[in-house]
Amino acid sequence: MKHVEFSGDNYEGYIRAVTAPVTEILSLNVKKHEGKTVDDLNKAVVPLVESVEKANDKYAPLARGATLEDAGNYAALVGWESVKVGNI
């Protein structure tokens, strides 16, 4: 089990995600063994976040934060109207 503290805009996103009909949980990890950093992860995630929020503004912002147990491990929550696959 991992714990993530959502605050600010992330708290609003958390509430929208967990009250949506469908909640997607993403686990994101910094690949330290490959020499990657948190900045590298953020650079990779920002375009994804922007695309999801643009296509799914009803449940934006996407909630994300670091896990309290593992440095370099992050979680993100996304609310969706259904499990039907759409275009992002």
Shape: globular
Largest sheet properties: 3 strands, antiparallel
Strand order of the largest sheet: 1-3-2
Distance between the termini: 30 Å
Residue windows where pLDDT falls under 50 for at least 5 positions: none
Overall mean pLDDT stands at 88
Q: What is the structural class?
A: alpha+beta
The gyration radius over C-alpha positions equals 13 Å
The helix fraction, in percent, is: 25-40%
How would you describe the overall organization of this protein?
The chain has a three-stranded antiparallel beta sheet. It is built from two helices and three strands; from the N terminus they run αβαββ. It has helices spanning 9-19, 38-55, and strands at residues 22-29, 63-66, 73-80. The protein is of the alpha+beta class and 88 residues long. It has one domain (9-79). The longest helix has 18 residues, at 38-55.
